[in-house]
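Title: Comparing notes on inverse folding

I've been comparing how different people in this forum approach sequence design from structure. To keep things fair, I'm posting one structure and asking everyone to reply with a full sequence. Here's the target:
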């Protein structure tokens, strides 16, 4: 917690400066699960059996609302080896989303580029993937880092690659019962993001709004194409 002390914010902020808020948020996921397993089966019945076997091999689910869509609670069951802005490496996952679809796409694009750069065998290759973006509602007790007094430390919350301050804040917030954190996007300046710290922060309409996109990532740029949109980010 040394970073948060250096930033001079008090644990009392997590009660005095947390309020009920709600936001519709887009999140992108790679379309790989069904395509990968269907290569191994010859019928729908075999697909169902394989899905059940795979489910039994996964980590236990965290408590979530009955009937909650799996895209809302799945991130919370794994411990990814790589860190992210509000989660230390090897700790239970959180759920990231963005108010605008283009902001969610920018976040996905950055991590696609990072994947290329962190994979020695892919550095001189291009990676083409398909993604589904879906919209959910994030709501509950919220620490809004774009509002005072949290905004006093905007440079720390928005640091491009040092996540120590935001990771420490997320841990303290979760311990205090904060459901989610609203913050400024680093990958899409002007965009607004949300990180849900618990499945209880998330609900979704039925049917859930969705948008299908294709992505091409190289070491110098990432291109994403969706309905009526073509976006490019240069990383050279």
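Reply #1:
Here's my take.
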């Amino acid at each position: 917690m040394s970073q948060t002390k250096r930033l001079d914010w008090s644990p009392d902020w997590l009660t005095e400066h947390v309020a009920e808020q709600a936001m519709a948020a887009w999140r992108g996921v790679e379309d790989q699960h069904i395509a990968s397993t269907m290569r191994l089966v010859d019928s729908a019945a075999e697909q169902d059996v394989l899905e059940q076997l795979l489910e039994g091999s996964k980590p236990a689910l965290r408590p979530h609302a009955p009937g909650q869509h799996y895209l809302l609670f799945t991130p919370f069951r794994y411990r990814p080896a790589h860190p992210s802005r509000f989660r230390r490496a090897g700790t239970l996952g959180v759920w990231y989303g963005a108010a605008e679809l283009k902001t969610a796409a920018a976040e996905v694009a950055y991590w696609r580029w990072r994947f290329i750069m962190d994979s020695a065998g892919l550095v001189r290759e291009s990676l083409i993937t398909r993604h589904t973006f879906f919209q959910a509602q994030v709501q509950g007790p919220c620490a809004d880092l774009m509002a005072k007094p949290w905004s006093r430390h905007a440079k720390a919350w928005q640091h491009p690659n040092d996540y120590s301050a935001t990771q420490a804040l997320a841990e303290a917030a979760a311990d205090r019962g904060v459901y989610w954190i609203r913050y400024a996007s680093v990958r899409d300046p002007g965009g607004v993001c949300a990180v849900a710290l618990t499945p209880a922060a998330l609900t979704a309409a039925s049917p859930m709004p969705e948008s299908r996109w294709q992505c091409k990532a190289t070491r110098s740029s990432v291109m994403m194409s969706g309905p009526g949109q073509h976006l490019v980010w240069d990383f050279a």
